[in-house]
Amino acid sequence: MSLSPHRAAFTREDAETRRLALIEACAACLAEQGVGGASVRTICARAGVSPGLLRHYFDGIDALVAATYRHVTHTVNDALAAAVAAAPPEPRARLIAYTTASFRAPIADPALLATWIAFWSLVKADPAIAAIHAETYGGYRAALEALLAECGVSAMERHGAAIGLTALVDGLWLELTLDPASFPADQASALAVRWVDALLGG
């Protein structure tokens, strides 16, 4: 007897749910135990699936880690895009929304920092992770350059300005997520806004 369309749709949804559960479990294990603690058995136990099921969705643990990195970067990119979409239409406001979104949830999260550190540790050793890293930071800087162009920053200055602003945001985000109590989000945002205004005013 053939499966009905309703049953087939349910099966596809269930498969995607299990795949996402493995990705989320991998991210949690990386955050809590680092790369060394992210084993097939540990991840599958956290996801509530059998170890053999991981191979059904991913070509091994390395592929799952790479998929997890890509999933995390998509989550960050979605948050940045949402911040810009919610900002007033003025170019300066859109640029500030993009830069300061990193200092609020879901990006300003100590668990995300711990996961990100695990990914960073693999950049030099894993070509797949290195490629995702290059794509991620290249996309972030490209978005910044587009927003800077909207603000009237010249083509000659945009690339360097985007690199500098990326470094500033990364540094502030790192300090904020390492110790939120001693370095509040509003201070990080104020520093970023001051830098943006100095750039645009100059």
UniProtKB/TrEMBL annotation:
<dbReference type="Pfam" id="PF00440">
    <property type="entry name" value="TetR_N"/>
</dbReference>
<protein>
    <recommendedName>
        <fullName>HTH tetR-type domain-containing protein</fullName>
    </recommendedName>
</protein>
<dbReference type="InterPro" id="IPR050109">
    <property type="entry name" value="HTH-type_TetR-like_transc_reg"/>
</dbReference>
<keyword id="KW-0804">Transcription</keyword>
<keyword id="KW-0238">DNA-binding</keyword>
<dbReference type="GO" id="GO:0000976">
    <property type="term" value="F:transcription cis-regulatory region binding"/>
</dbReference>
<dbReference type="InterPro" id="IPR039538">
    <property type="entry name" value="BetI_C"/>
</dbReference>
<dbReference type="InterPro" id="IPR009057">
    <property type="entry name" value="Homeodomain-like_sf"/>
</dbReference>
<feature type="DNA-binding region" description="H-T-H motif">
    <location>
        <begin position="39"/>
        <end position="58"/>
    </location>
</feature>
<dbReference type="InterPro" id="IPR036271">
    <property type="entry name" value="Tet_transcr_reg_TetR-rel_C_sf"/>
</dbReference>
<dbReference type="Pfam" id="PF13977">
    <property type="entry name" value="TetR_C_6"/>
</dbReference>
<feature type="domain" description="HTH tetR-type">
    <location>
        <begin position="16"/>
        <end position="76"/>
    </location>
</feature>
<dbReference type="GO" id="GO:0003700">
    <property type="term" value="F:DNA-binding transcription factor activity"/>
</dbReference>
<keyword id="KW-0678">Repressor</keyword>
<dbReference type="InterPro" id="IPR001647">
    <property type="entry name" value="HTH_TetR"/>
</dbReference>
<keyword id="KW-0805">Transcription regulation</keyword>
